[in-house]
# Entry
Amino acid sequence: MIPFRLNIAVWAVCQLLLIQYGALGQSPRFSLIADKQVVSLGESFILEAVLENMDGDDVSFPDVTPFKVVQGPANSSQYSLINGKRATRKSTKYVLVAVKEGTFTIPPATTRIGSREIKSNALSVTVRKQDPQTDKKATPQAGDKETFIVAEVSATQAWVGQQLLLDIVLYTRQEVTSYNILEAMQHNAFYYEPVSDLRQQGREVTLGSKKYIAYVLKRDRLFARRAGEFVLDPCQISLELVGDDAQSFFFQDVQTEVFSTKNLKITVKDLPSPPVDFSGAVGEFTFDASLVSSGAATDVCKVNMVVEGDGDARSWLIPPFPAPGSLQSFEPVVLKEESVPTEGMGVFHREIEYTFSSQTDTTVQVQPELVYFSPEKGTYITLTKDLGSVQLKARQPGTNQTSGKTSVLQPWLTEGTLRHHTDALWASSRFYMILGLFGLTFVIITWILPNIRRRGQKRNGIVKAIVERKSPEGLIDLAEKCANDGDVEAFFSAAEEFCLRFCKWYNVNDLSVIRSADMAFLLQAGMTVEQIQLIQKIVQSIDIGKFAGRQVNLTQMIADLSALNSTKQIV
# Structure
């Protein structure tokens, strides 16, 4: 056991290291996002300003005319420390309603960090007339059902390359404790991009004379790969519902039921014959361009183009920019390429720099453009920006192509300047780096290595215990003992070994089939629906606790293990 004073020393050194390196967190970002960027007249959407890993002051929202504000502001903040990296998230939300048809650009939001003003991105939102043929939601028909699920798609008629949103929505008037997606909707004509970290709350809707709470359980972005009529098979989800005859909060009558959506038909059309300058951008896009100063030299012209839209990044190529006049063009450079986080349509952002030079003195007109296909209008659209005329001198031989400056090698430092630029070791960055390395070495030798050795010895004992206890009852007893001792890692190892031996009874050699929810294969192997749902629940809890690092109810898991053991005698 490490002495108390040594523990204090280790703690102090760790604090020193955290102070020095704690700033090495996630990248800062200030973004303006919306849960939908294509809405119908009268439909509401959420506008959110997000500060990630930034300590900005109050966020100032831009003028959102012609949208109407119906709710907000709602503020929230999150903090996390993962693998030594600090991450923060602050957001301010408004709920807006579309009251006018057209495509509108919401200007950037602003915030202040000290004396600096920081701006977010701008956001484009398209408002369309309601169209029963292509609109997202035909109102679900509830009938006498208290709970049901519906597959909703942003458009049932689309173009190749267009982005669609596919939601699996739960409508319920009952209390739901958990859910498990048994089979997701799939078709190889679409590329699926899951939307992770959904933060939507349940919303109240009225169907007929009944009020339901609607939850989005799963959201995917779909990109059509080819033309044709395609049918997405139903999505199957098991729900744990609390019965009406529940005795109390602690003793609830929970029933498991399986629900399915209906088939979903999507018609995809081929794009019309494209123009020469079309680069594969299908969706709604914004475009900007500017001239980049090249300093004193005037023999190089640089143009910075910024393109943002909801197209498929896999097929969206760098837009062509033919050299103006008689200029010579160089290979364009992608300066920045990222996906803007949003719960709605995925937005892709790309910045490209184009470089041109001239062999003679000349004046040219610079007019970059972007050609994209708009699914909303069903035609190709050309965006153009006139940057005016640029005077260029003839490029001299030996000039750097990218900057226009002559490259001349200079001596690095003379002996005098070397002594002049050498800082004292005390209180310099090298001093703190050496101090940090000494502290880190001290922590490794006195605490980390002994701890790893003890954990290895303990792990060998756990593996030996699992091998010795071959019976399922012995594994359950071992798991219960580990839970009582507070050894969560050993508990998960024993529970996982139990599930593996249960599967091998049915000639299923690993747990990957359980994790993939291959119902047909497991039923063919001889498992019952009850056994499949129970072992999937146990394996999901193991994965959540073991790999995701989240807390799970170990007592409930022991009960589930015993219940699973009672369904089949294991040898």
Observations:
- Residues 1-6, 18-25, 132-137, 400-424 have pLDDT under 50 and may be disordered.
- The two ends are 41 Å apart (CA to CA).
